[in-house]
User: Fold these one by one.
Assistant:
Number 1:
Amino acid sequence: MRILITGGAGFIGSSFVHYVLEEHEVDEIVTLDALTYAGSKDNLDGALDHPRHQFVKGDIRDQELVTDLIKDVDAVVNFAAESHVDRSIEGAKPFVETNVRGTQTLLDAANDAGVDRFLQISTDEVYGQILDGKFSEDDALNPRNPYAATKASADLLARSFQTTHGLPVLITRTSNNFGPRQHPEKLIPKFIQNAAAGKLLPVYGDGSNVREWIYVEDNCRALDLVLRKGEIGEVYNIGSHAEKTNLEVTEAILDTVGVSNDLIEFVEDRAGHDQRYALKTEKIEALGWEPQYSFEEGLERTVDYYLD
């Protein structure tokens, strides 16, 4: 299979590039990334010169470039996105441009080229918050911040191409990822580095907000499975069931790094801060997937990466 991976120099995208090259001996990958602040060629160290890998610097909104790249591939996996909620609150325009307009450009080109599969990478945040129970793939979308709203828009756009044009679309919605190569603005790498440097760890509100954390390698295995064995037109939730409050995550980081909880600083809560996300995952489990790493195992590996 020849695969175009957009956003492949980012955190999850680069992890997926490495995973596919290691697990599938005949697959070829074309990585497209604009190398904005969150993407780096360093994340592709060991893959850049791989004989089955080609890197292209470019923007998914560039219709001519995207059309040229997609005509020679079997599948598209779209990781490319603006993804930081705080940044979306400060200004939504780049999120609309990349997450919606960029996805539309890819869908148009994929439809014209007749690709075999188009995997749209999404997030559990499109469902909004849930105080009790868990979201299934059939639940209504109720995004509550600009980032989530643009990802929900991209999901709906992708599904419309499947319904209207017959484009073979699949969608995954994953819980919070963590692991090596994640940008240091994100909670876990930021707090690991702060803890190691003796700096304060700013926790929003009272730290009671709950997220479901999945180690990035587990997510990549699930994404690869959906790409190859998922049913066209379906949505697949991917989660670990490892629910943690932000305060519990913070305390686990401090314990793993080996420093005092005195570094915790409670700060004013973020605007529109969803209280809890949680996913039902029976569909992806029916394909034969389950997480291999516990939160604690993944955190130890992540701390080792950032402090090495």
Number 2:
Amino acid sequence: AAPLFYSPGKRGYYSPRQGRATPERINAFRNVGRIVGLCLLQNDLCPMFLNRHVLKYLLGRPIRFHDLAFFDPVVYESLRQLVVDAETGDSHSLFAALDLNFSLEMCEEEGGGCVELIQGGRDVEVTALNVYDYVRKYAQHRMLLSQEKALEAMRMGVLDVLPESALEGLTAEDLRLLLNGVGDINVAALVSYTSFNNESGEPPERLARFKRWLWAIVDKMTHLERQDLVYFWTGSPALPASEEGFQPMPSVTIRPADDAHLPTANTCISRLYIPLYSSRHVLKHKLLLAIKTKNFGFV
């Protein structure tokens, strides 16, 4: 069977792939909706980033032409330019040269084949007079009509878990934050969320220096390394939108001095275990090695 989701334009953002819309496949989309609902209910982050129009559909909000910019930015810009060109004096010859009509070649993920955007659309030329109608119908078909059964099943799944009133007043951006957290790992926020437990038996001055080393290393990490660190530590690649989203709050347990072992983590309780390494260099090397090898462990 084909995957349930595909990434249409902007890499890393996903839309449902309805396929033949068999009862089993539509039920799978409903189950995805239930998972989304449970993530919202339990303040958990969802590991999949959904396209903006999908979030709007889940919220029961209308999907508009400008949402295409988040779905397929290259096509959106081309269509936007068509609208701009319609205002120019020489638009008639321009549209004649483009030879567009009210039909659309769909990619395999969106059903394949040629569809007419209006009845007899293959025989209706796109002109400066009807281009507004064309771009709206184009966007509506690609984002909504070609996948509507899958989208509706996802929304029903969310509403199996949450009352519709729980979604009132939310924008697509609000829902993105609740579901996916803050993509850019803010080091100051991470510092404020984190508590330390000392199992090393060492004096406070050495512990304070070790903490300074740790946060200086995190501060100099690349965006991807920070995501890997937070995933290694908490089981999620992003920070929640607020500290209420952490259950429990992240913590670091400093173990007795030992340069031989890597840090480990217990993602169930968002706890990082780090031996009291002898130098900042050793700490950096071991930490980066651990997050690359995904050295999880219940300790």
